[in-house]
Amino acid sequence: xxxxxxxxxxxxxxxxxxxxxxxxxxxxxxxxxxxxxxxxxxxxxxxxxxxxxxxxxxxxxxxxxxxxxxxxxxxxxxxxxxxxxxxxxxxxxxxxxxxxxxx
Length: 103
Hints:
Structural class: mainly beta
Shape: globular
Distance between the termini: 25 Å
Number of strands: 9
Strand content: 35-45%
Number of helices: 0
Strand order of the largest sheet: 2-1-5
Helix content: under 10%
Low-confidence stretches: none
Mean pLDDT: 88
């Protein structure tokens, strides 16, 4: 089952369906969090810091030389570091970027 982790500016996280796109200021998702009776949520993109769409260990034979080391800095001083091909899909309200973090 595909899922995403929505990371909010206030530190809260929500597990739900991946967003279909980032072309509207609010998205709708089914909630996957255990221990809650909530079934769905409307999420304003302005309340999000980022959304993790996929998280898995990198392949053992991954050649990091073909990637560029990058750091993504957020206004709360959190920094996501990793490697990326720096090819991203832009949308009206955000971008989709692959970030490989071997650590």
